[in-house]
Each structure stands twice: as C-alpha cells, then as structure tokens.
Write a structure and sequence with these properties.
The complex is a heterodimer.
Chain A: H1 2-5, H2 11-19, H3 23-45, H4 48-64, H5 76-93, H6 95-104, H7 127-133, H8 136-148, H9 152-159, H10 163-182
Chain B: H1 3-8, H2 11-17, H3 22-34, H4 36-54, H5 63-74, H6 82-91, H7 101-166, E1 171-177, E2 185-191, E3 196-203, E4 211-219, E5 222-228, E6 240-241, E7 250-257, E8 269-274
Helix pairs in contact in B: 2-4, 3-4
The chains are: A mainly alpha, B alpha+beta.
C-alpha cells in the first residue's frame, strides 16, 4: 500500500528528486523500501551475506538506471522489487551461489518466519492471516513465482500442474490478498 | 481481446506474482500504458503482492546503508565537482558488477590461457630442437658404430694376414711380369703343409670386360687351377684365399674368360714365378 510506505514523501516527489540525481533521495528511498526489498531478497537467496550483496547491487542498479524507470508502465515499488527479484533470482541460479550454499549447508526456509512484518503493517495483518486466507496450493503457486522466480509454464512443467490450474490459483491468490489487505475479506 | 476479457484472463495477477516471462511482461506493460483501466487493475494486483512482500520485510543490518550510500556517492557523476570527479574516477573503478569473483576468474583464466599458449609454443620449439639434436646424435652414433665395425673387421683381417705372414710354413712366391707385361707382379703365399694358398700385392692391369685373371699352379709341368682372382679385395689388407694346392713348382696367372678355363690360355700369361726350393 503506497500510503504505508510514503509517509515522509510522496512517490511522485521522490521520483522527481531521483531523476534530478539527488543523493539524499536515495537515502529516503532506502529508508522507505530497504526492509521490504531485503526481506524479499532474503526469501529468495536464504543467506544474509548474499542478500546484503544483492540489496547493494539492486540499489546501485536502481540509482544508475533510474532513467529507465517509466511511471506510465508501473509503480516505482513494482519496478524496484522487480529489479531486486531479478538480481536475487539471477544470483541463486549462478554457479557462485550454488558453490557458496553447498559449502555453507544452509537449510532452506530459515527465514520463512514473519518477523519484522509488523513494523510495516499498521493493520497488523501477518503471514498467519495470509495462510488462513489462502489455501496451501494457492500460496505455493505465488511463492514459487515470487520467491523462486519460476514462470507459470515452468511451474506447470516442474510440478505437473496444468497451466490453466496454475493461472487460476495465481489469480485467486492475488485477488484474495488484495481483498485481505483492503480489509474487505 | 476486450479489457474485460483481458482482466478476467488472470494475466495481471500473474504479472504481479512474477509468473510471466520477459516478453509476456512487456506485453502487459504496453497494455497498461495504453489503458487506464488495465493500469488500475495492474496496480491493484501489484499492490497486493507488494503488501504480501512487506509481510516478509526484514530490516537489513544498519552498516549496509552507509556502504550503499557511499557507493551511490561514488557513482554519481552529476553531483561531483571537477576535483572530486577525478577522485571519483579513481574510486569508481570497481563498481558493483566488478566485485563478482567471476570477472577476476575470467580474467585470470584468459591470462592463464595466454601464458599456457606461450609456454606451449616455447616448449614445442625446444622439443623440436631436441628432436633434431637427437636425430643428429643418432646418425653420428650409427656412423661411429659402422666405423668401429669396419675397423674391427679390418683389424681382424690384419690379424689374419699377420698370422699368415709370420707363419714360416708359408712360402712367399714372387710372380714377375712376363715380357709383354713387365709392370705386372704379384705375391703368392703357399703353405705346402696345409696346402693353403693366398695371394697379395696384386699389380695387374684391370681385366677387360668379360675377362678374369686365373691362378695356376704348375706341378711337374701340368697347370692346375688354383682359383679365380677377385680384384675387389685388393684395397683391403686381406689376403685372398685361393684353392688348395698340394704340390707345385711354380705359379702363374693368365687372363681367361669370366668363370675361368680348364686349361690356361698361354698367350694371355701375365705373371709367373717359381717356388724357391
């Protein structure tokens, strides 16, 4: 929800300042979005050390390629989260990551708790509410997409679920989330 | 596809959840840019996923902000003054992408490849030179071996010759050239005990083609064939062994057709000498 995030400055003003290459705007951007971006990156890469690298890469990329952000096409946060997710997914698919993870022997799912969530959610909707709203199949589909970077076709192939079913589950999951966060469930 | 159908297809939700390929994403973005209705629905779906993402929010460790801000400062060409700019240029050499160890590994592997290429070339040349040297050494070794063989053969022949010459049982018979061939002469060593005959020191004119010299022993006036003379052996120190002769008073050499004759052709008498009694 934009209202939760832009407490200090509106998205338009922030975009304008970033376009003007205002360093301080990056600081604001960081304060507003770093925890969410970092949380998502951590979900994907599983280890703090790598997540920190990715967050750093993501902010530099956001800063350097800000000219390419087009508000006509989508919201700033959508653009940023896509950059971060792409970097994180590239990372887990890289050989370097596989080497590091295999040597560190990290158990997947270490960070699947919902700690930190309340600070960003005034309505105190937590993961528990999500889990109660979505059925496990629906949650699995959006998690595979959002945190594993799999496309609908990849999920269909790898998990042997018909493509139509993948689409339906993803759609209902997002719709349900939308309603949940609007408080209309 | 109408907007309603488009929204109902679920593609916007897939976009928000990240389940679309790059091409499919671009299509959605284009559609959203052209239609406020699609854009609003897309924003709603994205906002839902973003809120979902926020549920997973984790504050990064505080030092990370300083680190990232410092890098942002370094990569900002607009805010830098010309002086800072030159400094920034120095510091901005290792930007984020270059921290990847793969670039270093890649560079290192190229360097190693080049070095190994140069070394291979170097050692290939060395190897070729060594091969040449080895071939030369082998050839000269072979030559040496041949020389040694020749020498030992010659030494054997000399031993044999010496043994004959030193043996008092051998009677040297000097064959002198006849009137028609005053320059011709030859030596015959004859051992009456074991009946062996050797010839040496041939000074005979080269025989015409198809002709050969034949040695005769004269026993009580009868010529006895003592064998054909081979001129090939004259260059070595080897004495040529002839047929065994039990009894003789003189030796003579005539020119005969190749293979020799039963009786000597007396017109072709070359040399002759009497055995000293």
């Amino acid at each position: 929800m934009p209202d939760n995030l832009t407490q200090k400055i509106s998205e338009e003003a922030l975009v304008a300042r970033l376009r003007a290459k205002d360093n301080l705007a990056v600081s604001l951007l960081y304060d507003m979005y770093s925890a969410t971006l970092y949380g998502v990156i951590l979900q994907i890469v599983k280890t703090e050390e790598i997540a920190e690298d990715v967050l750093q890469e993501a902010f530099l990329k956001i800063w350097k390629s800000f000219d390419r952000y087009d508000e006509e096409k989508g919201r700033l946060f959508t653009w940023m989260i896509n950059i971060s997710r792409n970097l994180a997914i590239d990372k887990i698919r890289s050989k370097e990551y596989r080497m590091r993870v295999s040597t560190d022997a990290i158990a997947p799912g270490d960070y699947h708790s919902d700690f930190g969530s309340n600070a960003f959610n005034p309505d105190h909707i937590g993961l528990r509410d999500v889990v109660e709203t979505l059925n496990p199949d629906q949650k699995k589909i959006i998690d595979l997409m959002y945190f594993k970077g799999l496309t609908q076709s990849e999920i269909s192939e790898e998990y042997n679920i018909p493509l139509g079913t993948v689409k339906t589950r993803a759609r209902s999951a997002v719709k349900l989330l939308s309603k949940l966060f609007k408080g209309s469930v | 596809m109408s907007n309603e159908e488009y929204l109902a297809s679920g593609i916007l939700e897939l976009y928000a959840a990240g389940g679309l390929s790059q091409a499919e994403r671009e299509e959605v973005e284009l559609r959203a840019a052209n239609s406020p209705e699609v854009r609003a629905a897309l924003d709603e779906a994205c906002a839902a996923m973003e809120t979902y993402a926020q549920l997973h929010a984790v504050a990064p460790r505080p030092y990370l902000k300083d680190k990232i801000m410092a890098q942002v400062q370094e990569t900002n060409p607009v805010a830098a003054t010309p002086e800072q700019n030159s400094e920034a240029a120095v510091y901005s050499l290792p930007p984020a992408e270059e921290t990847s160890p793969y670039k270093w590994m890649f560079a290192a592997s190229i360097a190693l490849f080049l070095i190994s290429g140069l070394l291979s070339y170097h050692f290939y040349n060395k190897w070729q030179q060594t091969e040449d040297l080895l071939a030369t050494a082998r050839a000269s070794e072979q030559l040496m071996a041949q020389n040694v063989q020749t020498t030992s053969l010659r030494s054997e022949q000399l031993q044999e010759t010496l043994a004959i010459l030193r043996n008092p049982d051998y009677q040297p018979v000097e064959l002198e050239g006849v009137e028609t061939h005053p320059d011709a002469n030859m030596l015959v060593y004859w051992n009456p005990q074991n009946q062996e005959v050797y010839i040496d020191e041939l000074t005979l004119p080269a025989p015409p083609t198809g002709m050969q010299y034949q040695l005769w022993a004269l026993d009580n006036g009868n010529p006895v064939d003592a064998g054909m003379i081979s001129l090939a052996g004259t260059t070595t120190a080897k004495l040529q062994k002839m047929k065994q002769i039990s009894s003789a008073q003189a030796f003579a050499v005539t020119l005969e057709p190749m293979g020799g004759s039963v009786n000597p052709t007396l017109e072709q008498l070359m040399v002759m000498g009497k055995v000293k009694s």
